[in-house]
């Protein structure tokens, strides 16, 4: 478990980077000096911090694939659910989608299609690499 948490944190920090934190500082400075008035800086800051959290969790949860006691199918399901909830909660907090049935349904549909496309691409890439390695052997 300790290894998972460490791997999660490392992967999350790599995914999130430090750019959003620096930008939050710059926007806060611009807000305090009165330079930015057309977009509420508090909203920009919330969006940037939210994006940082979103990326941290989405990047970090990939550590689940290194847990040896979990099958690939279960790990993929956990990954998909955690990322879905991560995106959904952040999107709702920031009002990027409305908390109504149709927008949530569309969001869920787009997420599932996007997730399947990404994993299909990854699966094909890995399968191609395995085939190349097998041919060399």
Mean pLDDT comes to 87
> How many alpha or pi helices?
5
How many strands in all?
0
**Order of helix and strand elements from N to C terminus:** HHHHH
Structural class designation: mainly alpha
Uncertain ranges: none
- Helical content (DSSP H or I, runs of 4+): over 70%
As a percent range, the share of strand residues is under 5%
- Morphology: globular
CA-atom Rg in angstroms: 19 Å
Cα end-to-end separation: 36 Å
Largest sheet: none
Give a written overview of the molecule:
The structure is a single chain. The chain has 137 residues and is mainly alpha-helical. It has five helices and no strands. It has helices spanning 2-16, 19-32, 41-60, 72-93, 101-136. Helix 1 (2-16) packs across helix 3 (41-60), helix 2 (19-32) runs antiparallel to helix 3 (41-60) and helix 3 runs antiparallel to helix 4. The model has no long low-confidence stretch (mean pLDDT 87). The chain crosses the membrane at residues 12-39, 45-65, 72-93, 99-122. It comes from Lactobacillus kitasatonis. InterPro entries: DUF3021.
Task: Give a concise summary.
The protein is mainly alpha-helical.
Write the layout of secondary structure elements.
Layout: H1 2-16, H2 19-32, H3 41-60, H4 72-93, H5 101-136
Helix pairs in contact: 1-3, 2-3, 3-4
Keywords:
137 residues; 5 helices; mainly alpha; single chain
């Amino acid at each position: 478990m300790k290894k998972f948490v460490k791997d999660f944190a490392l992967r999350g920090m790599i995914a999130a980077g430090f750019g959003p934190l620096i930008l939050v500082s710059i926007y806060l400075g611009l807000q305090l000096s009165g330079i930015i008035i057309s977009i509420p800086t508090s909203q920009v800051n919330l969006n940037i911090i939210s994006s940082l959290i979103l990326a941290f969790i989405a990047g970090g949860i990939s550590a689940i694939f290194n847990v040896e006691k979990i099958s690939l199918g279960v790990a993929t399901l956990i990954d998909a659910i955690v990322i879905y909830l991560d995106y959904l909660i952040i999107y709702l907090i920031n009002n990027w989608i409305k908390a109504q049935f149709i927008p949530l349904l569309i969001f869920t549909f787009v997420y599932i299609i996007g997730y399947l496309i990404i994993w299909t691409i990854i699966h094909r890439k890995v399968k191609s690499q395995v085939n190349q390695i097998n041919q060399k052997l």
